[in-house]
Amino acid sequence: MSTETADGGNGGTVTVTQAAASEALDLIESEGLDTDQAGLRLFVQQGGCAGLSYGMRFDHEPELDDAVIEQHGLRVFVDPASRNYVGGSTLQYEGGLQGAGFHVENPNVVSECGCGESFRT
Questions:
Q1: Comparing C-alpha atoms, which of 4, 58, 3 is closest to residue 29?
Q2: Where are the domains of the chain?
Q3: Domain boundaries 2-120, CATH class
Q4: Are strands 39-46 and 74-78 parallel, antiparallel or unpaired?
Q5: Is the pTM of this model over 0.70?
Q6: Cα distances (Å, whole numbers) of residue 39 to 15, 26, 109, 115
Q7: Which pLDDT does position 86 carry in this prediction?
Q8: 118: buried, middle or exposed (CB in 10 Å: 19+, 13-18, 0-12)?
Q9: Three-state secondary structure call for residue 80
């Protein structure tokens, strides 16, 4: 298991904004999970009209082969297959009139579907 950065296909890392970390930590604590061990899993899966989509969930602890990114007190777990797609990305939290949620700003994306739910690299 590596720590601090998750290298992607472009050699970049995953960055977590302060707002995303704060929101995720609040949610993890509200689930009754230990923030010293638990974290947010960021993964890429097949699906959507553009071919790939992001997934996120809370996990109690990382898997042995996960990269573990620790920023602003949040632990983010990224599996080896997903690292190839998310290197150089920034995990953000956006709020506003149109709704609030987590967003991955990924420089590896060459196209997205019209609704922004899936992508292609």
A1: 58
A2: 2-120
A3: mainly beta
A4: parallel
A5: yes
A6: 15, 11, 25, 28
A7: 86
A8: buried
A9: helix
